[in-house]
Amino acid sequence: MPKLNACMPEIYTRKKEGFKGQKAIVIPRKILSNQCARDKVISNLYITDIGYYPKAKYHYRERLHGADQHILIYCQEGSGEVTIKKSRFTIEAGDFFVVPIKAAHTYAADENNPWTIYWIHFKGTISDSLVDLLYKKANGYKGFISDNEQSISLFNEMYHQLERGYSIDNLIYSNMCLGHFITTMIYNDRYDTRGKLNRKDVIDNAVDFLSKNIGEMLPLDKMAAAINLSPSHFSYLFKKKTGFSPIEYFNHLKVQKACQYLLFTDLRVREIALELGIEDPYYFTRMFTKVMGMSPNNYREKKIH
What we know:
alpha+beta, Jelly Rolls, Arc Repressor Mutant, subunit A, 2 domains, six-stranded antiparallel sheet, four-stranded antiparallel sheet, 12 helices, 10 strands
């Protein structure tokens, strides 16, 4: 088990990504400030970052001044160690831990039995109270889930919806799931309900089409033709449902995919642009910066987890 201190081997201090099967989504900060923090339904509790790291050997994080969000991490298998506000404890399969906003913390996967973790960063007007409740029910920063099936199902629901873009429907759905997800940690012995959204309308089908063609540059008329609508009617329905024009929404999906490449591959910015069907790397950089609020290179250097 690695020791959690400033003398950690160099391989621990630098290992932030590189776990086979990993996935992560960082919500654009403009979306958080302009939609999540202002929406009357979800401003009380919303996701800022979400991800999954399987068998994350050498995974290590140290934040001496804490994070700008609360952090909730569930360990599905393997083990690790955590220090929060000088309180230190071991994490085993089935355990979860919560790190309050701005709380100094360090955590690392076990070297010989690295953990597989589901993690979420979150904020909101009730988030402090919710973390306090979680702490009270768990008698500390660490808790245990006896049955994780539905918790993991909810996590996958949140991730899947956010993966489809940042329409207000997707944001509301995923963030309302967040409250339920945290509830499974607080009241695990009482949690026995399920819910899954299966019905899709024409705009949902359009988003599926965009997601499957993320490497193409699709003009509006081709998007509309894919679901047998006129461009004008398609644009009207799309913006009414998602809050964005089809092209803007498609760009969000492209940038989301670009974030994956930047975090988890060594592809150059020009190569990533080509993977997304964009031949001009300068256009791609401008588009990325407009959505994420920073350049691709700056994003690559930013440690989210």
